[in-house]
TrEMBL record, chain A:
Its EC number is 6.3.5.-. This is Aspartyl/glutamyl-tRNA(Asn/Gln) amidotransferase subunit C. The keyword Nucleotide-binding applies. It catalyses: L-glutamyl-tRNA(Gln) + L-glutamine + ATP + H2O = L-glutaminyl-tRNA(Gln) + L-glutamate + ADP + phosphate + H(+); L-aspartyl-tRNA(Asn) + L-glutamine + ATP + H2O = L-asparaginyl-tRNA(Asn) + L-glutamate + ADP + phosphate + 2 H(+). Keywords: ATP-binding, Ligase, Nucleotide-binding, Protein biosynthesis, Transferase. One of its GO terms (molecular function) is glutaminyl-tRNA synthase (glutamine-hydrolyzing) activity. GO terms for biological process: glutaminyl-tRNAGln biosynthesis via transamidation; regulation of translational fidelity; translation. InterPro entries: Asp/Glu-ADT_sf_sub_c, GatC. Belongs to the GatC family. HAMAP family: GatC. The gene is gatC. Heterotrimer of A, B and C subunits. The keyword ATP-binding applies.
From TrEMBL, chain B:
InterPro entries: Asn/Gln-tRNA_amidoTrfase_suB/E, Asn/Gln-tRNA_Trfase_suB/E_cat, Asn/Gln_amidotransferase, Asn/Gln_tRNA_amidoTrase-B-like, GatB, GatB_C_1, GatB_Yqey_C_2, Gln-tRNA_amidoTrfase_suB_CS. Residues 470-483 have a biased composition (Polar residues). Keywords: ATP-binding, Ligase, Nucleotide-binding, Protein biosynthesis, Transferase. Its EC number is 6.3.5.-. Heterotrimer of A, B and C subunits. Transmembrane segments: none annotated. This is Aspartyl/glutamyl-tRNA(Asn/Gln) amidotransferase subunit B. The gene is gatB.
Amino acid sequence: MSISKEQIEQVAYLARIQISDAEKSALESKLSSILDMVDELQAADTDGITPMAHPLDATQRLRPDEVTEPNEREKFQKLAPEAENGLYLVPRVVE
Amino acid sequence: MQWETVIGLEVHVQLATQSKIFSGASTNYGAEPNTQACAIDLAMPGMLPVLNEGAVRMAVKFGLAVNADIAHRSVFDRKNYFYADLPKGYQISQMYYPIVGRGEVSINLPDNSTRPVGIHHAHMEEDAGKSLHEDFHGQTGIDLNRAGTPLLEIVSEPDMRSAEQAAAYLRKIHSIVTYLGISDGDMSQGSMRCDCNVSVRPVGQEEFGTRTEIKNVNSFRFVEKAINTEAERQIELIEDGGTVEQETRLYDADRNETRSMRTKEFANDYRYFPDPDLLPVEIDDDYINDVRGELPELPDEKQARFTRDYGLSEADAAPLVQNQAQADYFETVAKASGDPRQAANWIMGELARLMNQNDITIDQCPVSAESLATLMGRIQDGTISTKIAKQVFEALWNGEGTTDEIIENQGLKQVSDSGEIESLVDQVLSENPEMVEDYLGEEVAKKQKKKFNALVGQVMKASQGKANPAQVNDILQSKLSKN
């Protein structure tokens, strides 16, 4: 199965990744070979088999409903490019 | 052409846990920005989400309350999209294996009929943060306190056929989650939010029309208005030869119209996949039965009990049980006064009127259930008339003292002294000779009764409403027949 240039551009847009034309053609062949492998997997008969949600054969551990995290705002906001009045500032989001 | 509106609702309910769904940060509302956003909520590298048992318990509780199948195994998926208030770049949700399966609720309509509405499923997910678009030098401020707050998204079947039914459904969901104590249900604070899927079709047509989704409609009133407005828009569009496009729309309450959100065509490609950070959630029958044991009496059961034990009609019981606090208030008054029907009348009458007028709920009501029962007792023992009681009730509401203090201080005690009433009757008769003439000269019994009542009214007025009406009747009758 092959992937088109348009599909690569769409996937890149969805992932917010900028890619050059040269990278696009390299990705075209790489992704196509990955999809070929998926095709092979798809060919396997999986009727009656419950899909796995996780490779580990284990179940989710639950934590009690308790507040355990202290306020570490100052520490975190030092890492942010910009913060003001306790808010993280980001480029304007147009609604 | 006759059109039928088809509606399905997606209701997001914030679960009332202490901590977030995947982290130990607090979920308190109204804290200083970002003081309740920990490393997990901020999506710091290497952080792992761990599921909150409290959120699972609340989701199961809801499922049991709507007679739904509870999934013994449910799975979390990632819903991928980019937005500044979603730090991870995905929302953790349950796309394929939700915790709550098919269920049903019964909605109460204004004509006292009920109607079943199917629950398609309900799933757990996390809330996003908040974007503040006020002036930050042309930038947007992000508060992530809400990020990671547990949500239960309750998805109905497209079973509703009018905006009125949709509002009734939303009220029922609100009743259920607040009875269960799994959410405060406060729509003004965003604890409960609603998306409405609306389509129209000619009456009699089997297949559904193309639907639009109205996002984030945040009050009971707006749900009705938004749906009606959108249905009218679709009908007009089709009748003018157009076609409805499947899209997301926003309701503008100020203009009472819906607007297209004009998103990029592939913006809705969420690329769901199972979240590798979270293992499948397994719960067994013991756990489910344990939660079942915590279920309180639910609105429908309470309504049935109120009609059975207190002799109320369905019409009287339905509004009383809509919220737990009001139902509790009623029961206290009903027991203390020994007159459940009058208790219901007072609560749905005077009390409801003053609550609406002051825009408050019953837990903020200044008149306690005990004082209302005392007031009703003063009618029962003949101290005051029903009419005067309303006046006393307003005084109680305004904090002018206890029932007995108000009656005493404002001289509202019913006059049952026959001598006093007799002199009032004499006074009225002598001041209104033409009314007496009129009464005595009337030959039609029905008309004569009316004229008699007019005289009773005069006496009551002369007593400032305090005379015992039964005694006034008797005394007036005997005086007039002597004439």
